[in-house]
Amino acid sequence: MILQAKSERSFYHMNGEVAPSQVCQGMACFVARRSDPDRWRRASMQQQTIYCLGKCYEAPASNEEDSLPVVSVSAPEAVVLGNLEPYCALHLARNRTPEELIGEIEISGLRGRGGAGFPAGKKWRAVALQNSIEKFVVANADEGDPGAYVDRYILEANPHRLLEGMIIAARAVGATRGYIYLRKEYPRAHSALLNALEHIQRDPQLRFPIDIVMGQGSYVCGEETAMLNSMEGRRPEPRLRPPYPTEHGLYGRPTLVNNVETLASIPWIVLHGGNAYSRLGFSSSRGTKVVSLNSLFERPGLYEVEFGIPVRHIVEDLGGGLKTGRMKGVVIGGPLAGIIPPHLLDTPFGFDELRAIGASVGHGGVIAFDEHTSIAQLVHHVFAFGAFESCGKCTPCRNGSSKIHRLFDQILEEGLVPSHMRAECLEILNAMEKTSFCGHGVGLAEFAGSAWKYYHEELDRCFA
Ligand SMILES: Cc1cc2nc3c(=O)[nH]c(=O)nc-3n(C[C@H](O)[C@H](O)[C@H](O)COP(=O)(O)O)c2cc1C
Ligand code: SF4
Fold first, then answer.
1. 31 has which bridge partners?
2. Which ligand has an atom closest to residue 258 CA?
3. What is the pLDDT of residues 408-452, one digit of tens each?
4. Among 79, 149, 329, 452, which one is least packed by beta carbons within 10 Å?
5. Quick one: CATH architecture of 375-460?
6. Average predicted confidence (pLDDT) for the chain
7. Which class in CATH covers the domain with range 80-282?
8. Which atom of ligand 2 is nearest to the CA of 401?
């Protein structure tokens, strides 16, 4: 059965289908706009705004092409992108107790791949501990972060891996039903999932009720509590926490929400054991992560890497550096994370290590940009996105994101604005960072903060 995010239709950006000629306006397409100026011009003229089609490897992208990215494994083990016998791990899991399964995930050290990096085993245990006649597993397939396209790849090329991860997770936490919240911008993923679901419903060994809920084009719906509201047909604003979804989630029932890549890692961990997984990676970042490199790289595509390698290895050795010019910076983990300037490229790729320099692993999108993009243009682009996607629930984000967007509009038009606007701008960003209700407003402010920290000379030149 396909459910739809029902009411509150005016909240969503996409009530219709994604037009075949639709051009993506996401950050990867923005920084690549010079490679196809005509297509980028079309983007600014089209009626519908779409911030990511998940095709950052061929940006500026449109919905016309039907291609998958080049994929490559550079980690010692191919946890996510490798071939596994489908449902072999599920058969093994059926002979393990829920406690044993949760124990393996805890030992593995797997952290959520959706952005927040929360320990997966801890979340599973929290749901398993709840007494309830109904529990749910929800796969977050909203993949809204411009720059990331690993979930799209898994959904289109290997949907059974996700389903297998979900069914194992359901067994471990005692869930009775699963849902996949899928972004509408991924129509091919939708078809692939429908086929895979039909397959498991036909096989009595695999049968488990899983529904697809289609998103309607809202970035904030990727935030897990906004997503649950959307699924219930409510206004999809983030919920106050606690209570957490693990106790009070979908329809008030305990709910495990995990990202697609997190769930797609589960079959490998069940087959090889939590210890084998935790031997990969370093410090508090265990295992592997798939990073998505944008089209400005010599070799764009998906790379499965082991945590702990320097970011430089990703951008220079795997990506081959930029084909368009000098690399000015890299945005890893989407527009709610900081920019990494060239002098910090030796930072190890890990949750805490990137956090320490104001950046983030996020969902693993790696968008490099060159000297043809000014920092003011980049901040303008990110805040146009931020203001467009703000759900409006809290004042700092609703008003702050559009004020900063308008200020940078003025900067780009006039080249220079009065100096008092600098202090005003920093004050707004400070309020956004300290008082926004969810990660959207906070992340936008952090993005601007890192731009100011690492490119202050360039930004300061915008104020008289
Ligand atoms: C504004 C915002 C957007 C988000 N979008 C996504 C998304 O598209 N996909 C995703 O998996 N997580 C997204 N998240 C994170 C989710 O809230 C949640 O942490 C995640 O789905 C949990 O799964 P994980 O523990 O496996 O990462 C977003 C968070 C915020 C604040
Ligand atoms: S921070 Fe932005 S997206 Fe989050 S609740 Fe506030 S207005 Fe909505």
1. none
2. 1
3. 999 999 988 999 999 999 999 999 999 999 999 999 999 999 999
4. 452
5. Up-down Bundle (1.20)
6. 94
7. alpha beta
8. 2
Mutate which of 219, 221, 234, 237 for ligand 2? The one with the most ligand atoms within 8 Å of its CB, which is 237
Q: Is 126 in the pocket of ligand 1 (CB under 6 A)?
A: no
Which ligand is in closest contact with the Cα of 437? 2
List, in sequence order, every residue forming a beta bridge with 259; answer none if it has no partner. 140
How many Cα atoms occupy the beta-carbon half-sphere of 364 within 13 Å? Answer: 27
Query: What are 271-305's pLDDT values in tens digits?
Result: 999 999 999 999 999 999 999 999 999 999 999 99
User: Any bridge partners for residue 140, and if so which?
Assistant: 181, 259
Q: Is the CB of 111 under 6 A from ligand 1?
A: no
The pLDDT score that the predictor gives to residue 15 is 77
| pLDDT on residue 1 | 53
Residue 229: CB within 6 Å of ligand 2? no
Task: State both tokens at 281.
Answer: 């990676």
Compute the distance from residue 314 Cα to the ligand 2 centre, in Å: 32
Region of 233 on the Ramachandran plot (φ > 0 left; ψ -120 to 50 alpha; else beta): left
Closest CA to 162 of 149, 175, 147, 179: 179
β-partners of residue 213 are: 3, 181
Distance CA 263, CA 116 (A): 15
| Ligand 1 close to Cβ of residue 114 (< 6 A) | yes
What are 33-59's pLDDT values in tens digits? 999 999 998 888 888 888 889 999 999
Closest ligand to C-alpha of residue 223 is 1
Output the six-digit token pair for 104: 């393996």
Centroid of ligand 1 to alpha carbon of 231 (angstroms): 15
Residue 283: φ, ψ to 5°: 35, -130
What is the 389 CA–ligand 2 centroid distance (Å)? Answer: 9
Give the closest ligand to the alpha carbon of residue 441: 2
DSSP 314: I
> How far is the C-alpha of 435 from the C-alpha of 283, rounded, in Å?
31
% of the chain with per-residue pLDDT over 90 = 87
The letter for the amino acid at 35 is: S
CB 268 within 8 A of CB 31: no
Distance from the Cα of residue 117 to its chain's centroid: 11
**Cα of 224 to ligand 1 centre, how many Å?**
6
- Report the separation in Å between the CA atom of 394 and the middle of ligand 1, taken as the mean of its atom positions: 19
The residue behind tokens 């961990």 is 269
Measure 220 CA to ligand 2 centroid, in angstroms: 8
One-letter amino acid at 315 equals V
pTM of this structure: 0.96
